[in-house]
């Protein structure tokens, strides 16, 4: 799969290339609803006048996209009506209206276009947006659901991180937290992935987790349980964050009063343009902002990191969870996100 050749499509002044690639996880990755050892992605390149922008679509199983569906979508994209990548609004609006959903496929074009624009302007995108990279919060590192021994091993591997993200949602929740607390006292954030189904039990857990220095709850109950999530938010001692319950810009106003904040991911919202709009809208609604990721290469991670100075919490560890990253971009040093001072999204292909 990872030796697949690039498919090339010439479109007027633009050339689009894409190919499937499979990310290999360093550890089996388990959340409340499934386990996996790989993540399918599609890598993209958008070329204009000899300058190439890099993009990526990552498709964990629950998104409903696949390498085949992304490739099918990308074959439909035709940018020959556009004379310049600076027609960004028109280009991305056209891409968004091509089909419903397909948000990761759309994100792969959005990221490549932003990278291309930054390279033409010879500036990193965080500078084009006027953002200060020193304002990026420390990234969390994800500890998936596992046995006590493996959890201890993973936590020890994550010693550089100032905050850990813990996957919960099964009957092992307390064991996982207690195991982590036997090894470290760093702050935790708990991602339940819709695993809790009862609001009173969820509130009881929220109080217990608060005592264990858990700083927020991500998607504690199913996204359809709007009233129950709102009740929990009103009573919880720690903030609640919508993940599965927040996909795109249109969702954000509906979440005021239901959650304390939102988790923005490029693969859910079609890319950098809409992610930035979501962060800005959330601020006007007094919602906290978390910036998350899927399992991704440093390409999509570095793209998301360009807007990380706007957020309260960063969860940009996706490339650290894989063993076959083919890009060099944002790095993590002592738990801090370090953006390269390179144009566009700042990534280079590894030799």
TrEMBL record:
Q: Which residues bind Mg(2+)?
A: 191, 218, 243
Quote the Gene3D superfamilies the UniProt record gives: Enolase-like C-terminal domain, Enolase-like, N-terminal domain
How does the cofactor attach, per the note?
A: Binds 1 Mg(2+) ion per subunit.
Q: What is its EC number?
A: 5.1.1.-
Per the record, the domain of life is: Bacteria
Q: Which keywords does this chain's UniProt record carry?
A: Isomerase, Magnesium, Metal-binding
List cofactor names only. Answer: Mg(2+)
What is any Pfam family matched here? MR_MLE_C
Q: Matching InterPro entries, A to Z?
A: DgoD-like, Dipeptide_epimerase, Enolase-like_C_sf, Enolase-like_N, Enolase_C-like, Mandelate_racemase_C, Mandelate_racemase_N_dom
**Which ranges carry the Mandelate racemase/muconate lactonizing enzyme C-terminal domain?**
148-239
According to its UniProt record, which protein family does this protein belong to?
Answer: Belongs to the mandelate racemase/muconate lactonizing enzyme family.
Q: What is this protein called?
A: Dipeptide epimerase
Give the originating organism. Sphingobacterium nematocida
């Amino acid at each position: 799969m990872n030796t697949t050749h690039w498919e090339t499509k010439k479109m007027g002044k633009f050339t689009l290339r894409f190919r499937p690639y499979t990310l290999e996880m360093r550890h089996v990755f388990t959340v409340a609803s499934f386990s996996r050892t790989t993540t399918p992605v599609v890598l993209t390149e958008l070329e204009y006048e000899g300058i190439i922008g890099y993009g990526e679509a990552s498709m964990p199983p629950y998104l409903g996209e696949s390498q085949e569906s992304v490739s099918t979508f990308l074959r439909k994209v035709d940018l020959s009506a556009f004379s310049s990548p600076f027609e960004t609004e028109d280009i991305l609006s056209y891409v968004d209206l091509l089909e419903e959903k397909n948000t990761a496929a759309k994100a792969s074009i959005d990221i490549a276009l932003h990278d291309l624009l930054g390279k033409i302007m010879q500036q990193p995108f965080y500078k084009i947006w006027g953002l200060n990279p020193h304002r990026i919060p420390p990234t969390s590192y994800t500890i998936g659901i596992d046995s006590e021994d493996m959890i201890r091993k993973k936590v020890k591997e994550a010693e550089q991180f100032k905050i850990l993200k813990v996957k919960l949602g099964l009957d092992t929740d307390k064991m996982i937290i207690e195991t982590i607390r036997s090894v470290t006292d760093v702050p935790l954030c708990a991602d339940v992935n819709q695993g809790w189904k009862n609001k009173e039990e969820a509130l009881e857990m929220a109080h217990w987790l608060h005592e264990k220095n858990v700083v927020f709850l991500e998607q504690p109950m199913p996204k359809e349980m709007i009233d129950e999530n709102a009740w929990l938010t009103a009573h919880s001692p720690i903030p609640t964050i919508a993940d599965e319950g927040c996909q795109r810009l249109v969702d954000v106003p509906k979440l005021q009063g239901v959650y304390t904040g939102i988790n923005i991911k490029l693969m859910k919202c079609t890319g950098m343009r809409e992610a930035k709009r979501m962060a800005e809208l959330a601020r006007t609604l007094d919602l906290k902002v978390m910036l998350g990721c899927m399992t991704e290469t440093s390409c999509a991670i570095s793209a998301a990191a360009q807007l990380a100075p706007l957020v309260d919490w960063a969860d940009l560890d996706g490339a650290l969870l894989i063993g076959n990253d083919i890009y060099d971009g944002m790095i993590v040093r002592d738990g801090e996100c370090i953006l390269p001072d390179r144009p566009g999204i700042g990534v280079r292909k590894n030799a």
